């Protein structure tokens, strides 16, 4: 059996030694984005996962559709658009560092969801601009390369 005092001391020690060398606003993400190949991969990856394996947007089976959805690290926004189509009463927020999402008001094929999707830009490592508990469902996908191991999140 683990002694809780020892576990607490180790966690405290490791936390005190964890120092971030990243300046606020900087991103450690090592890849350049977006190239046309990256955008195509984002769409194909989604189609493969949804169409071939899961047959829905998430592995989780909802009893009722979420009403507020956050797609953290939304990239091209493809998943967020599909979420708004699948959950017609949901408000979907796509959050990403880069403004590479489409202007939905200019695309006829997405007019049905344009008023329920919002793109917000920033670095989640510096904190999110949303109040705690606001979203019913938060999706985080493909951001692992942008999360430094030595940075703490509270």
TrEMBL record:
Any GO molecular function: methyltransferase activity
UniProt-listed PANTHER family: 2-METHOXY-6-POLYPRENYL-1,4-BENZOQUINOL METHYLASE, MITOCHONDRIAL, METHYLTRANSFERASE
Annotated source species: Amanita muscaria (strain Koide BX008)
InterPro entries: Methyltransf_25, SAM-dependent_MTases_sf
The protein's name: Methyltransferase domain-containing protein
Gene3D superfamilies: Vaccinia Virus protein VP39
Domain Methyltransferase residues, every copy: 69-141
CDD domains: AdoMet_MTases (cd02440)
Transmembrane segments: none
